[in-house]
């Protein structure tokens, strides 16, 4: 405190920070990137462990014997699905009733804001079928959910068969202390959203659905199964949910523990963990796995049906069966015993999962990186914004040098007018509002005047507004107060730096991955942009570090890590698909990534663009 309260020491510290501002910022940026890349190295990770005592041991005997019968049920489900051309509701109701469940249905309707060309749908109508196995030894105040989506074609038929087989087996057991809900939802996430809103008596997405006639207790946990083959070589665990939410780490630990017990090959992000952590290959696989998790989490979309449960504070995960080239095979009976063991452990819970981590990254299923380890990487990047803001603050408040006669050597800089600073800020945010609202509102007009589909109209309108925004705030301060002052761009940049620091900080607290990715590209642009740099080079640099180009880089990186690299034209096609899917995810499920980028990140970047062309 003495250092800051003493004017001489404070002045010396400020002088040091301003004199070495650029080297310190460069070191912070490189250190932040290096810190993040080092998180996949074993000394920076922690071994996973079970925090919940009720699930600390896998000493239960799994006896599920009906794997082949479950596969036969799946084939029967597939035949009935082909017969009716969709969800075989009547067959599912009869089959669940024959297994002793209380069976109910829910109809729902959802009109999309524009057609989803990826799945070729606009008006979605469907029915969810669910059966409740009542707990024989408890007051029925708590419940678990086991769900399998009814997917089009030949997908996921085996998952429904295994779900029905487990329902029949669970019905014969007497140790259940929680209700178990077996749910088959139609139209994947839309059907799941309708069922969850009906179960919790909410309607936050404007969907039409019939009220649920049967309910169980408060849902404690949920598992979703995706299985499309009779033989499985490995199981992949999917954790990323809506807006980057993750389930409690103990749920992933439980899955990993039972896979090890039953000898099932398990992966995360499709990557099989290696034991040679100290080798280059081992580190590379761990870094790829962690980066894939960051990219998926930053997208804000739910990567499985489980992703929508997390909004209601229900710990959930999706388990996806993989049939690949590996020689190791797992039969349906072993998969059934895996789910039997997991549900028996979840059945033992006396309270919700809460003792383990909710904020983490996983380079493998046996190691994780806690929030205390990965947040310093973001903090180093955010510190650059504060250091540059401090430098600007000193420049703005530093008076002109004075001679011995008390006369200033040069005229003091004129103070910028309030309107000259506020005008770019207001117009930039109005452009962001247009980017958020106009693509959907103007799709009918675009279809009438141009030979494009509704989806193309929405995406192209968004791109047009994004591009037009480069000209709208350009030197808008001159509309009010004439020529901009030297102090004016400094004040505007100071406001932009502080605004960006607060924005990225709040984003990182909610979704670290999204905040970190935005910081990697936006922080250099915000730190370096000035009106005195070469305009062509500066414009190219700022555009390459824009939010739109950041999405393009993420698509390239994601496809490369998925071992499906794409060319530039293919990446541009995927870019258009990502834009349309982001708008749809916001309208259908409440994803916050698109409004965050349109209403806050893009206007903040436009302020940097305006600073570059300040005159």
From TrEMBL:
<feature type="transmembrane region" description="Helical">
    <location>
        <begin position="20"/>
        <end position="41"/>
    </location>
</feature>
<dbReference type="GO" id="GO:0016255">
    <property type="term" value="P:attachment of GPI anchor to protein"/>
</dbReference>
<feature type="transmembrane region" description="Helical">
    <location>
        <begin position="592"/>
        <end position="614"/>
    </location>
</feature>
<feature type="transmembrane region" description="Helical">
    <location>
        <begin position="496"/>
        <end position="525"/>
    </location>
</feature>
<keyword id="KW-1133">Transmembrane helix</keyword>
<keyword id="KW-0337">GPI-anchor biosynthesis</keyword>
<protein>
    <recommendedName>
        <fullName>GPI-anchor transamidase component GPAA1</fullName>
    </recommendedName>
</protein>
<keyword id="KW-0812">Transmembrane</keyword>
<keyword id="KW-0256">Endoplasmic reticulum</keyword>
<feature type="transmembrane region" description="Helical">
    <location>
        <begin position="537"/>
        <end position="558"/>
    </location>
</feature>
<dbReference type="GO" id="GO:0042765">
    <property type="term" value="C:GPI-anchor transamidase complex"/>
</dbReference>
<dbReference type="InterPro" id="IPR007246">
    <property type="entry name" value="Gaa1"/>
</dbReference>
<keyword id="KW-1015">Disulfide bond</keyword>
<comment type="function">
    <text>Component of the glycosylphosphatidylinositol-anchor (GPI-anchor) transamidase (GPI-T) complex that catalyzes the formation of the linkage between a proprotein and a GPI-anchor and participates in GPI anchored protein biosynthesis. Binds GPI-anchor.</text>
</comment>
<comment type="subunit">
    <text>Heteropentamer. Part of the GPI-anchor transamidase complex, consisting of PIGK, PIGT, PIGS, PIGU and GAA1. Interacts with PIGK.</text>
</comment>
<keyword id="KW-0472">Membrane</keyword>
<feature type="transmembrane region" description="Helical">
    <location>
        <begin position="371"/>
        <end position="396"/>
    </location>
</feature>
<dbReference type="GO" id="GO:0006506">
    <property type="term" value="P:GPI anchor biosynthetic process"/>
</dbReference>
<comment type="pathway">
    <text>Glycolipid biosynthesis; glycosylphosphatidylinositol-anchor biosynthesis.</text>
</comment>
<dbReference type="Pfam" id="PF04114">
    <property type="entry name" value="Gaa1"/>
</dbReference>
<keyword id="KW-0325">Glycoprotein</keyword>
């Amino acid at each position: 405190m003495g250092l800051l309260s003493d004017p001489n020491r404070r002045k010396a510290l400020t002088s040091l920070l301003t004199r070495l501002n650029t080297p310190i910022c460069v070191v912070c940026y490189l250190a932040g990137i290096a810190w993040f890349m080092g998180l996949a190295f074993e000394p920076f990770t922690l071994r996973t462990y079970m925090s919940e005592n009720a699930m600390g041991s896998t000493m239960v005997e799994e006896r599920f014997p009906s794997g082949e019968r479950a596969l036969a049920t799946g084939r029967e489900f597939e035949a009935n699905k082909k017969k009716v051309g969709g969800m075989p509701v009547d067959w599912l109701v009869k089959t669940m009733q024959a297994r002793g469940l209380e069976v109910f249905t829910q109809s729902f309707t959802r009109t999309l804001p524009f057609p989803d060309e990826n799945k070729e749908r606009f008006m979605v109508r469907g029915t969810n079928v669910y059966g409740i196995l009542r707990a024989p030894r408890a007051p029925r105040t708590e419940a678990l959910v086991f769900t399998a989506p009814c997917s089009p074609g030949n997908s996921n038929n085996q998952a429904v068969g295994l779900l029905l087989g487990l329902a029949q087996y669970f019905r014969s057991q007497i140790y259940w202390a929680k209700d178990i809900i077996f749910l088959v939802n139609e139209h994947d996430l839309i059907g799941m959203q309708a069922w969850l809103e009906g179960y919790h008596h909410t309607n936050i997405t404007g969907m039409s659905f019939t009220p649920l006639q049967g309910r169980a207790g408060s849902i404690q946990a949920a598992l979703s199964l995706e299985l499309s083959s009779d033989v499985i070589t490995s199981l992949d665990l999917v954790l990323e949910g809506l807006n980057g939410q993750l389930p409690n780490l103990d749920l992933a630990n439980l899955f990993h523990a039972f896979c090890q017990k039953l000898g099932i090959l398990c992966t995360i992000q499709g990557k099989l963990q290696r034991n040679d952590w100290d080798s280059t290959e081992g580190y590379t696989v761990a870094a790829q796995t962690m980066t894939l998790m960051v990219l998926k989490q930053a997208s804000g979309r739910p990567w499985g049906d489980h992703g929508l449960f997390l909004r209601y504070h229900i710990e959930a995960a999706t388990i996806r069966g993989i049939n690949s080239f590996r020689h190791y095979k797992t039969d349906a009976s072993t998969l059934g015993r895996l789910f039997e063991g997991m549900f028996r452990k979840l059945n033992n819970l006396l309270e919700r999962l809460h003792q383990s981590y909710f904020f983490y990254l996983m380079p493998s299923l046996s190691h994780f990186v806690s929030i205390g380890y990965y947040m310093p990487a973001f903090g180093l990047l955010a510190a650059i914004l504060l250091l540059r803001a401090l430098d600007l603050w000193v420049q703005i408040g530093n008076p002109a040098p004075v001679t011995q006669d008390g006369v200033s050597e040069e005229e003091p800089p004129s103070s910028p007018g309030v309107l000259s600073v506020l005008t770019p800020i207001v117009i930039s945010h109005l452009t962001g509002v247009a980017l958020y609202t106009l693509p959907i509102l103007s799709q009918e007009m675009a279809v009438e005047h141009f030979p494009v589909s509704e989806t193309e109209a929405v995406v192209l309108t968004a791109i047009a507004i994004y591009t037009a925004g480069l000209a709208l705030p350009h030197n808008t301060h001159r509309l009010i107060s004439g020529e901009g002052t030297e102090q004016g761009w400094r004040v505007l940049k100071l406001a932009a730096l502080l605004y960006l620091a607060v924005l990225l900080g709040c984003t990182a607290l909610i979704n670290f991955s999204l905040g970190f990715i935005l910081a990697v590209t936006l922080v250099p642009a915000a730190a370096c942009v000035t009106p005195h740099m070469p305009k062509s080079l500066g414009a190219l640099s700022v555009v390459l570090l824009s939010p739109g180009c950041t999405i393009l880089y993420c698509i390239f990186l994601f496809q490369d890590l998925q071992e499906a690299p794409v060319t530039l034209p293919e990446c541009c096609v995927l870019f258009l698909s990502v834009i349309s899917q982001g708008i749809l995810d916001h309208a259908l499920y409440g994803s916050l990534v698109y409004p965050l980028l349109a209403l806050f990140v893009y206007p903040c970047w436009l302020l940097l663009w305006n600073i570059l062309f300040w005159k």
